[in-house]
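Thread: "does anyone have the structure for this chain?"

Original post by V.I.:
We have the sequence but no experimental structure in hand. Need at least a predicted one for the grant figures.
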Amino acid sequence: MQTEFFDTHCHFDFEDFDADREELWQKCRAQGVRHMLIPGVAPDQWARMQALCQTHSGIYFAAGLHPCWLQGNITLDAKQLDALKEALRDKSQTAQCVAIGECGLDQYIDGDEALQEAVLESHLEIAQECDKPIILHCRRAHNSLLRCLKRNPVKRGGILHAYSGSREQAEQYWQMGFYLGIGGTISYERANKTRTAVKELPLEALVLETDAPDMPLCGHQGKRNTPLHIPDVARILAELRNQPFELIAQQTTLNAKNLFHIAP
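Reply from O.Q.:
Generated one for you, tokens below.
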């Protein structure tokens, strides 16, 4: 039986893949990458994701508003937040929508932190109401995010995308029902804290991702990342943990399927 992989975070709908999307997906399937989640970044993109999922077996999507779309002087009043929640609620009912997000907190960007938290809480509310897991984005905001999750628990948990924190922070997310998304970061030797964390966490807490077309692996900087690199992430993780490659692939794929309620 062929080794099977699940890329739990790939922006496969981005224009970076317009020229060769069909050919690339066939290559992915031939290599065992048979499942993929496309995270939402903005409402005007959701229909495109849904259409892609409807025509490609094994591809699913999440509906969300990425914090980077809240940069600058953007404001949302209570009425607009209610409209966002209604749009999330409506899209969550479609068959291929298996999660809410990508959403979260980002202190790298120029944006209103209070607005980011209000938008995140809207996503958490809908995820809880619709019984969906949530895909979380976090940069330099782990303490604020953890506080927000404690105030707004989500029974289905979710994934902390592109995890790059400490083992202690990872344990907090795992105990709250969140998997850690592991991608290209672990290929860089300078990422000592994250590499140590993924070595020590339970394998049952981890899922694989590429964040393609971004987050290239070490040695591929400046190039387009693709879901074809998921097996490479699995190999690096296997080396770090001193575990068999097949075990890494099998357990991380099972973790993702269990989270998104996808049949084995």
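V.I.: this helps a lot. The two ends are 14 Å apart (CA to CA).
O.Q.: and The mean pLDDT is 95.
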